[in-house]
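Late entry, written up from scratch paper. The run itself happened at the end of the previous shift, but nothing got recorded in the book at the time, so transcribing now.
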Amino acid sequence: MRCDDGCGDCCGIVPATDDEFRKIQRFIAENGIEPAASLDGTCPLYQGGRCTIYEARPLICKLFGHAADPMMTCVRGYNVNVPEHEIVARLRANGRTTHLLHELAPNYEQIKHLLPKRGTPAR
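Output as recorded:
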């Protein structure tokens, strides 16, 4: 899918499964990445116009812009849709959402009341 350099418009509240969350935690520790404070809903790992965990990003990030779901549509119109049954199969295979990447942000305690509850199923 085409993306504009430094866009990040789709990098908001990111759900992740337990396995994805642990993989991301390892990745940020191994690469010395510091999650940013995020008061506006931007992913704490989207920094300097790029995803700092791109190689370890969760499935929801990989699917964004490829899903026919209007909640995952690129605001710039760059979608390349994948059939819904393939997306559902990928999400089911990846497990249930149990974490939000904002939990890694240093100001998580201050903002957690603004975010969806843990355990919210992935779309």
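The beta strands are 15-17, 46-47, 50-51, 97-100.
(Scratch paper discarded after transcription.)
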